[in-house]
Amino acid sequence: MATPKQANLPQAAAPYLFLRVTGAVLLIMLLISVWARWYGQQVSLPRYCENPQSTLQHLEKVLVEERPAGDEARRPYIVAAKILFLLPRHPGEGQTAYLSRIRTYIQDTCR
Q1: Fewest CB within a 10 Å sphere: which of 37, 58, 92, 98?
Q2: How many Cβ atoms are within 10 Å of 75's Cβ, its own excluded?
Q3: Is residue 1 in a domain?
Q4: 90-94: Cβ within 8 A, 24+ apart
Q5: Range with the lowest mean pLDDT among 2-11, 37-46, 72-81, 93-102?
C-alpha cells in the first residue's frame, strides 16, 4: 500500500514534466532550424554555381513576369525561385539591388 508521500509524488512532478516536454520541443525546433540553415548554405546554394548566369536570368523572369515559364519547362524557374526563400529580399530593396546582391553572393559562394 502506498504511503501519502508516495501518492503525492506524481502530482509534484507534473509541473517539471511540462517543463521537460516544453524544453525538449524547443530544442528539437532549434535543431531543425540550425540544420535547415546549414543545408541551405552548404547544399542548396552551391548548386547555383553550375550556371549562375542562367539562374539569374530565370530569377529575374520570376520576379517580373506573372507566368515566367510560359510553355517552356518549369524546372529551371522553380530552381531559381528557391533563391527567394534561401536569400529573401530585404524590406524596401529594389529588384536591381536584390539581383545585384544575389549575383555577388553567388560569385562569392562559387569561389
Answers
A1: 92
A2: 10
A3: no
A4: none
A5: 2-11
**Cell digits for 39?**
543545408
Domains held by the chain: number? 1
Its domain, for residue 101, covers 9-109
Q: 41-85: per-residue pLDDT in tens?
A: 787 777 778 888 888 888 888 888 888 777 778 888 888 888 888
Check the CA dihedral 58-61-63-69 and report its sign: negative
Question: Do the domain assignments include residue 2?
Answer: no
Instruction: Please provide the average confidence, as pLDDT, over all residues in the chain.
Output: 82
Q: Which of 96, 7, 80, 93 is nearest to 45 (CA)?
A: 80
The grid cell for 82 is 528557391
Yes or no: say if 110 and 49 are a contact pair by the CB < 8 Å rule. yes
Half-sphere exposure of 42 (CA within 13 A, CB side): 6
Cβ atoms of residues 86 and 109 within 8 Å: no
> Is 18 a residue whose pLDDT tops 90?
no
pTM: 0.61
